[in-house]
Design brief:
The complex is a heterodimer of chains A (498) and B (161). With 498 residues, chain A is mostly helical. Chain A contains 23 helices and no strands. Chain A starts with a helix and ends with a helix. Chain B has 6 helices and no strands. The chains are: A mainly alpha (498), B mainly alpha (161). Chain B: This is Tripartite tricarboxylate transporter TctB family protein. Chain B: Keywords: Membrane, Transmembrane, Transmembrane helix.
Chain lengths: 498, 161
Amino acid sequence: MTAFLEAMRLVAAPDVLIAIMASAVYGLVVGSLPGLSATMATALLVPVTFYLSPIAAVATIITASAMAIFSGDIPGALMRIPGTPASAAYTDEAYAMTRKGQAELALGAGLWFSAIGGIVGTLSLVLMAPALAEMALSFSTFEYFWLAFLGLMCATLVARSSPIKAIAAMLLGLLFACIGIENPGGVPRFTLGITDLLGGIEPIPALVGVFAVSEVMRAMTTPEPPPLPRRRFGSILAGQWALTKKYQWPMWRGNIVGIIIGVLPGAGADMAAWVSYATAKRFSKEPEKFGTGHPEGLVEAGASNNASLASGWVPSLLFGIPGDTITAIAIGVLYMKGLNPGPTLFTERASSMYALYIIFVLANIIMIPLGIVMIRAASLVLRAPRSAVMPVIVLLCAVGAFATGNNLFSVLLVGLFGIVGFVMERNGYPVAALVLGIVMGTMVEQNFVTSLIKSDGDVLPFFERPVSSVLAAMTIAALLWPAAVWAIRRLRPAEAAR
Amino acid sequence: MHLSDRITGGFLVLLGALAFWGGSRLPAVPGQDVGPAVFPMVVGGGLALCGALIVLGIGHSFEDEETEPVEAHEGLARWLGAWRALAAFVPPALLLFYVLASEALGFLPTAFVMVAVAALSLGASPRLALAMAVAAPPVVHLVFYKLLRVPLPAGILPAPW
């Protein structure tokens, strides 16, 4: 109880409250602009968090990402352009509702069920994390290796692209992580004689390059989206209660599926939205209405992507293994702020953890009023021409990268990773897998090599401990899953054609 | 920048093989079988294998059918005509410009050039580009230099604050 009161005091500090408000507005605006994703919003925030107190820093990331995931629904519903990839699953549905004259209902559902999903996701985090922390205390390097590997495999599964290309992207990320002297032998590895590379490749320049610069590069070669027609909105929340009662089941299913996908290391909000939209259609009483402006899928997927956002913090806080690309960034910030992820975080820094939960709930509550303001202001914000927004992003990339270490080499890295991300994306290699590879490389290698040393180079002990054998089985299943899908498709061509 | 699977896969085979070879030449830790060489070799081997599978077109059926994005016909892309794909490289070029010029020129002039060039390349009217280039850098400078205390270079045009 004292820890809880202490947490309240931490959150009520003026700098934390200001940080929450400012990052809420920032997240809403960036998320609503097409092409600027929630991950990019978070990546560009990191240099700012360096200069904040630990709780304020974590608060900005939580708030901005939650807001951006919701606000990605706005251009999706109004212009049929998803603001963030997490909204892509139901963009067509929301736009169909707008065409039927139900823009308020579609946007309101996005807002209302995002907030509910976020709060339910937070509850799952509160309930699950301490129980898992207990278990995690007994984990050895074998379990950590499998857990990290499982995270990497999940990241390749969710990529909705060729699984081989996804695995290649992940391995490329691991290879980038090999650069530097932070390895078991402490020898310079793949540094090509460049002094700046001795310290290795920092995840932040890579993230900013892959998610922000490559997006500006894409903007250079694609036409500007059409301007949003001005419109007046009726009441946003009217009818949401009726929807909640009518689609109670889909809502809960969305919450739960979102939580499960979030907890899986490596799979995040995008995946949660796609899976939940599909399950909504599969279990609906009226699946023929899907795609014609039917709110059911919106309810389920909207709840799901925000629920996954909160539960994605479970593996991040417990094991330092990111649940998705946003928490991959958050982990870096946690380390920087002395809140090193690990099971002991829940025993030794309990008040900080409670503060984190409170921030999550707070962010999802203020999402409703701020979201309504944002929806009403959308026609104003979305009229900002791309040629005015993107140049500022380029400038922020440069300054943000410079600020991470006050050296110009990071700026160069940002540019290079922009090219890498752009080329990969254009050729069907998922960049999220690359990023997770870079972020988790050192950890995977450390646990892999330590385990190998412990077992004298023998592979068998990797499968001997009970938890590690379960994790190994899950990882191998994830690896073989695409092959199974392919075989099933082959065996039942008639069903696939339907 | 659309390349065929043969080219990207082939590149990955080459990169994986290089990593494997480079990894195998790393000095071992004395008295240990397992050292810094193992991980790059495993990753490099895997990468080469994946590259080979991609060259052979395995896994292609999982990809969405090719959707060539609509090409831009505004700003630099229009001016470049058939070479319009090159417009994509403006942002990294601007970052390179920042690396080379910011120390000597200072933050404000460098940022002015970056914003102006990027806006014009995206098809902004000269008036909008000029307005953005004049307005944005001081705001960014104020936030990062004053609030966040990032030592941005002053160069030839120090900010008044």
